[in-house]
Please model this.
Amino acid sequence: MIGIKSLDLYALGDSAIVVQLGDRIDLETHRKVQMVSKYLEEHSFPGMVEYIPAFTTVTIFYDPLAFLSNIRYDSAEHEEMGRSVFQQVSSAVLRRLETIPDTDVPKPTVIEIPVCYGGDLGPDLEDVAGHNQLSVEEVIQIHSSAEYLTYMVGFAPGFPYLGGLSERIATPRRKTPRVSIPAGSVGIAGMQTGVYPIETPGGWQLIGRTPIRLFRPEQSPPTRIQAGNMIRFRPISRAEYEQLKEREEWR
Amino acid sequence: MALRVLKPGLLSTVQDLGRSGYQKFGVISSGAMDPFALRVSNILIGNDEYEAALELTIVGPVLYFESDMLISICGGDLSASIDGEPVPMWRAVFVRKGSTLTFGAPRQGCRAYLAVAGGFDIPLEMGSRSTYLRAAIGGWKGRALQAGDRIGIRPMSAVANKILQKISGMDDGNAFCAATHFVARDLLPSYAQHPIIRVIRGREFEQFEEAGKEVFFQAGFTLLPQSDRMGYRLKGPLLQLAEPLEMISEAVIFGTVQVPPDGNPIVLMADRQTTGGYPKIAQVISVDLPILGQVNLGATIRFSEVTLEEAQELYLIREMEIDMLKQGIRVYV
Model:
């Protein structure tokens, strides 16, 4: 059992409940988040709407009316009558999550993201190299030789919060954020690295771009990267970038 | 059956009750800023309550009816009129082919919802017709309406047809004809220019300075011009944490009041991101989200505290009222 106590459950307003699974960003907490997500994916409870996994929490959205109208007060649950909706939801969540066996989560899926580094596709690559007293080639080599764990997605559809960036290429955010960062941009911000699935404003140092469409709303699931995936960046030439981009656009 | 856009207005988008089930992928929910008005606008004309409607913001559009239609306008009062004649709100209205709907100065609130019997003929994207402007998905071509757009309408439901028959029985040949039944005034949210919004304490409430905790429930907070469908930026006394707090990003929801390091609170609205990393001082209760969604720029908001139990009780009462409204329509037809 993964050991969830009632003290780990918090109300986020009148229609969401937060399950706290740890208090720091680490692999053990991430594993629990993955287990709870997998459980909820397979077993929803009456009134449950959806869930959002994050670094240390899984937040479950519910409809209080749908929850109450579907609950059956059998003998074990009889004492629940008269308790507040949140208390009842808490018990229901606890009863279910308590049963999750503490087993190993399946080996994470590795997703390869081809990246064309530098040039106009990665305008800050030289700054990142300069900041860390490395050559551009060394930055590319370091960035593309690691495997990164997607701890969570948020900020934008499929935007991964990745762990595992080498300190050797960590670089502070740009002083002035860009008004618009093109979709596919690969960037570094402090000890984080990530890739922008859609065009947004942002202050990350842009080191390259992927031709792959990471957000594809017409497909299921709509995002290429999901929480729990391992990411590997593969350096590609400009020619290969153009070729792949064309293929993506025809898809 | 189509509605033609002659002028788009300030920001007219297609919205329903939001895109649920995809937030785990980081896809924002979107949906109506005033979900109550959207639901009622649909119920009044025999649509499913989660059908998409047009959300019209402050300056409404000019719309031309290419065919006879059954509509309803709910939410903020943006002075709607058809062929120059004021249209009553919160009721079903039969509109004759060839008429034009215009809007004037906002009288109350800032977002009106125009629902059309049958619903708009727009594909679902990830289970919803809500427009998510930043990613250009959903709604009408992923964008706000523009002049020249022509939006098709799906066939009406059997209930809508019955409502239409009742109304057309009173038809006197004018451009439009409103139903005699309407939503009881005491059922409507207490839309106010400077509302008091009920909240429950946020998860990090206790971590704020004593002075900040007190002043949060006493002071007025002004809605700044940078506010939009994503978030309301508020200006009032600065709210500071008692001690710096190491925050780890987690889910945020419609109505979460978070406080960035500059001390000015932001209320997250329909187009919020799925996760956030700022301390949460409060959470607006569900039944007051419609009131918040109608607050205009420059208005002053105050917050008052209720318990989670009260918030959930109010939620259940609101749902029962909406259910009564649905039954009322069924009895009427």
Summary: The longest helix of chain B spans residues 308-332. Chain B touches chain A at residues 20-28, 125-126, 134-135, 137, 200, 203, 248-253, 255-256, 273-275, 283-286, 308-309, 311-312, 314-316, 319 (CB under 8 Å).
